[in-house]
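Subject: sequence -> structure tokens, single chain

Hey, anyone have a minute? Need the predicted structure for the following. Not urgent.
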Amino acid sequence: MAEHLKLDNSERLYREAQELIPGGMMGIRRPYNFVPGEYPIFFDSARGGKVTDVDGNEYLDMLCAYGPIIIGHREREIDAAVIKQIKEKGFCMSIVQEIQNTLAKKVISLVPSAEKVVFTKTGSDSTTLATRIARSFTGKTKIIRCGYHGWHDWCVENKGGVLPKSFEDTLEFKYNDLEGLEDLMKAHGPEAACIIVTPLGHPNAHEVEMPKPGFLEGAKALAERYGAVLVFDEIRTGFRVSMGGAQKFFGVTPHMSVFGKAMANGYDISMVAGRKDIMDVLISKAFVSSTYFNNTLAMVASLKTIEILERDNMLEVIAKRGRAFSKKVKKHVEASGLPCTFTGEPWMPYITFDKDDQGRYKKLRTAFYTQLIRRRVFLQPYHHGYVAYRHTAKDLAYAADMIAESLEVAKTSA
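Reply:
Had a minute. Here:
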């Protein structure tokens, strides 16, 4: 059995942070989202596919900052382009710089749904802007949603501090449940401004799902039947599943889509992309503005990230390595005989434990992820992981082996 990691500095900084910041850090990064006492709480540095914590422990980083790291940490070409912008041009000005247009042209050439785009900073910015655009365009109120779309009032899971009126017009359906969506639209379709759905199913703490045949096409048909806007939330899948997103990969073009995370390899940018007539409500009918949306460092990083991804066929490499890794892990999961499931092949690997009435799955989950982090593989018990370009075939083979060992130990200890 692998030894417990030395985490003294992480624990010290966490105690200090709790006196300074509510909870010490924002929710998804708090210790209870991992295995308290086993996972590091503070990282110190990162390079390529590895991260190092404040106690000097190095890990294979398969959480990838929850998705933005598509190539690797501290990519020299990307950082050099950003530093050049800082030194030679600057990045925060009263009006826009030309690179706005350059980046817009590039993403419009790649993303099927993109006829016009608006750049924002976070996924929540973009999903919320998409709902505003849809409501302005259609003149309707209700949002029909499926998936995690951020922390804003209309969609946040924890309703603390949120006025009921903020989300009373937001209705939910389950991924791959086209019949359930159809029932919702029969009841509320005349009032529906948009259907917003993740094209790949990745609800938090649940298995990753591929779309069933006809699901995405059916969602689009229902949106058009009732005069609603179909929005694909591609915050996680964009510039990962393909250069044109999951919409390109699955061959279904929504009316609007939102991208973020991987589009700049960790720099803070997201976007709303859509049909011209829909997007043009922002000319005068609806409003969006921010002091920082037009800052250009993340635009520079995005343009360079996209250039490198295309130039080196990185998404093909990621998918190939991800499939090989997934094949090995699925064999290990099956051989273990444990009630667990591997999903997310090839981009978003995730091992979940099948629920039972006695709650054994919780003990198994804790035991497995405890052993995995002790073997220096950084994955999350309640969130799928990612495969990045700097994860070498050797790295992923090691991760697969450590998963096998961790499953065996979990079998005897839970």
